C-alpha cells in the first residue's frame, strides 16, 4: 500500500497565487525555479507567473510547471514523503521521467525550452486547437461524436465525480472543431488557448523534433516504477521511457491507463503535484490530494496517516 505521485498536463490558465507562495516560502521550490532559469535562459519571475506574451507563454508555462512539480516533490521529500510509483500525463510524463531518475532534470528543461520554435500548426493557413468535451454517461466517443475529418480523439480524463459524464480531449483543425461544437450545447465544449492540435497526428513534425532531441539525452532505467498514460503498462527500461517522449506528442492520453496501473500496483494514496489537473473533478480508484500551495503540504502528511499509506524508503 503505497504513495503515487501524479503529474498532470500543461495548463495555460492556472491561478498562479499558490505557486508564487510556494516559491516565496519554500527554499526547495525556489531553488528548482532558479535552476530551471539557468538551464533555459528564461528569468525565474517569468516561470513563476503566467506571461502575457503569447509567443513565450506556451514555453514558459511548460518550463514553469515542470519546475513547480519537481520543486514540490523536493519539498515533500524533505518531509519524508517520497513516491513508490510515479506517472504523468502529457507534460507530466516528461517530468515524471526526471522524478523517477530516468533522465536528468536539466535535460528535460532544455528539451522544453528548445521545442518551442518548431511547435506551430501543421498548416499556418488553417488554425488548430483543442477542447475539453463532455461525453454523456453510456455513450462512446464513436457513437456520440462519430468520425469527422479534421477532428481527433486526443485524450480521456475519466469519469467526472458527479458520475454524469466523462471528459474527453478532442484536437484538430479549429474550423472542424467549431463545426462539431455547433451541433451540441455550448457547455459541452470548453476550448483551450492551445493553438496546436495536441496529442494528434497533426503533431508529427513536433514528434520528430522531440525524437531527435531525446536521442541525445541520457536516459537510464527508472529507479522508481513509472506508469504510462499512453497504455496500461509500467515503463521499466530507458528505451521505453525514451520512446514515451516522442509517442506522447501524437498519441492520445488516458488518465485511466495511469491510475488503473497505479491501483494494480497497490497505490493507497495519490498526490497530484502542481495545478496540472482539475481539482476534485474526476474519479480516481484511490484517494487523491492536490498540492499547489504551501498549506497543501500538511494535507499530504495528514492523508498519508489517514489512509495508512506506506512511503518509499
Automatic annotation (TrEMBL):
Parts forming coiled coils: none
Provenance organism: Dactylosporangium fulvum
Superkingdom assignment: Bacteria
Taxonomic lineage: Bacteria, Bacillati, Actinomycetota, Actinomycetes, Micromonosporales
InterPro entries reported for this sequence: Ac_transferase_dom_sf, Acyl_transferase_dom, Acyl_Trfase/lysoPLipase
Residue ranges of domain Malonyl-CoA:ACP transacylase (MAT) in the record: 20-308
Record protein name field: Malonyl-CoA:ACP transacylase (MAT) domain-containing protein
Amino acid at each position: 500500500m503505497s504513495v503515487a505521485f501524479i503529474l498532470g498536463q500543461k495548463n495555460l490558465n492556472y491561478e498562479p497565487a499558490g505557486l508564487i507562495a510556494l516559491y516565496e516560502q519554500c527554499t526547495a521550490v525556489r531553488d528548482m525555479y532558479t535552476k530551471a532559469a539557468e538551464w533555459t535562459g528564461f528569468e525565474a519571475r517569468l516561470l513563476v507567473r503566467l506571461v502575457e506574451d503569447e509567443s513565450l507563454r506556451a514555453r514558459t508555462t511548460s518550463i514553469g510547471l515542470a519546475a513547480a512539480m519537481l520543486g514540490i516533490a523536493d519539498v515533500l521529500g524533505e518531509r519524508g514523503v517520497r513516491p513508490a510509483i510515479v506517472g504523468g500525463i502529457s507534460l507530466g510524463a516528461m517530468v515524471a521521467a526526471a522524478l523517477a531518475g530516468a533522465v536528468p532534470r536539466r535535460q528535460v528543461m532544455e528539451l522544453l525550452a528548445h521545442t518551442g520554435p518548431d511547435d506551430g500548426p501543421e498548416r499556418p493557413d488553417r488554425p488548430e486547437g483543442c477542447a475539453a468535451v463532455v461525453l454523456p454517461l453510456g455513450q462512446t466517443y464513436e457513437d456520440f461524436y462519430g468520425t469527422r475529418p479534421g477532428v481527433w480523439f486526443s485524450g480521456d480524463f475519466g469519469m467526472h465525480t458527479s458520475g454524469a459524464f466523462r471528459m474527453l480531449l478532442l484536437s484538430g483543425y479549429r474550423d472542424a472543431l467549431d463545426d462539431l461544437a455547433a451541433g451540441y450545447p455550448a457547455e459541452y465544449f470548453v476550448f483551450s488557448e492551445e493553438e496546436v492540435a495536441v496529442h494528434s497526428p497533426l503533431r508529427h513534425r513536433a514528434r520528430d523534433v522531440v525524437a531527435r532531441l531525446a536521442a541525445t539525452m541520457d536516459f537510464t532505467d527508472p529507479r522508481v516504477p513509472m506508469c504510462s498514460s499512453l497504455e496500461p503498462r509500467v515503463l521499466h527500461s530507458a528505451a521505453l521511457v525514451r520512446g514515451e517522449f516522442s509517442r506522447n506528442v501524437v498519441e492520445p492520453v488516458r488518465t485511466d491507463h495511469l491510475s488503473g496501473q497505479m491501483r494494480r500496483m497497490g497505490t493507497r494514496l495519490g498526490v497530484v503535484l502542481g495545478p496540472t489537473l482539475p481539482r476534485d473533478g474526476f474519479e480516481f480508484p484511490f484517494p487523491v490530494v492536490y498540492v499547489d500551495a504551501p498549506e497543501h503540504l500538511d494535507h499530504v502528511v495528514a492523508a498519508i496517516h489517514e489512509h495508512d499509506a506506506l512511503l518509499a524508503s
